[in-house]
């Protein structure tokens, strides 16, 4: 995976395939949220069936201080991959993305995926200056990284906060929200849509909307119509078919699709999507059927 993510031509080839094979309306650049961390001096790998593994976790102020300032020109292969993809796809928009500060901080502190986020929360609560310094560094990195993706041709950007749902409303609001706002404010002058997706964050919807993002990704746990009533007309909403439906059968997937389309039929600021990633077990033909049905409904 890392070989693909560091090779511009392979980035292009993998990114354009869903457009060609599934008929989706946009392409999100193939990469991984860990990629820019290597330009802070972080050594990591991605283990099959496990996920990212950080070899030297960041768990105190000394370790935070040893991180290098982010070199925006470092991930040049990502920007070149975007340029190649844009040239290949023409009018079809390319979406850039980055990991949100808290999720990246969690990987750095835990050393990999976690169910308890013990080291992350320990750093956050027990050493506030160190945690705040880490979050500020990661927010600056994400803003610069995404801005350069826009310069390379991305017409929208997405910020993935995969682990934000592990926080209480109070902790999210105090420790995370200001740093997401930093990223949004860095990108706002560029005039591109900013998508924010936090997993398991139904209890955070009001706080998440306060980040100022253009589009809010909603996972399958939340009711989209209720989310719209809670947040009002802005931001735009995206989601949220349970991905496991796609791994069961076409009938199950399409039934869930119809339910969401009916629910959001009158909402002009709604984008259909899955409520998280595509399961490995998914049959691509089912995804094709979902895309066709959404297009038919839109017409």
Keywords, please?
globular, seven-stranded parallel β-sheet, 9 strands, 13 helices, 2 domains, TIM Barrel, 14% strand
Instruction: Count the DSSP helices.
Output: 13
Give the overall form. Answer: globular
Name the helix and strand elements from N-terminus to C-terminus, one letter apiece: HHEEEHHEHHHEHEHEHEHHEH
Q: Which CATH first-tier class of the largest domain would you pick?
A: Alpha Beta
Give the oligomeric state of the chains in this entry, treating copies of one chain as homo and distinct chains as hetero: single chain
Task: Tell me about this structure.
The protein has two domains: 2-16 and 25-209, TIM Barrel (Alpha-Beta Barrel); 226-299, no CATH class. The protein has 13 helices and nine strands. It has helices at residues 2-5, 8-22, 61-65, 76-89, 101-110, 118-126, 128-152, 169-187, 205-209, 224-231, 243-246, 250-263, 284-298, and strands spanning 27-28, 44-47, 51-54, 94-99, 156-161, 194-198, 215-217, 236-241, 270-274. Strand 6 (194-198), helix 9 and strand 7 form a beta-alpha-beta unit. Helix 2 (8-22) runs parallel beside helix 4 and helix 7 runs parallel beside helix 8. The longest helix is centred in the middle third of the chain and has 25 residues, at 128-152. The model has no long low-confidence stretch (mean pLDDT 96).
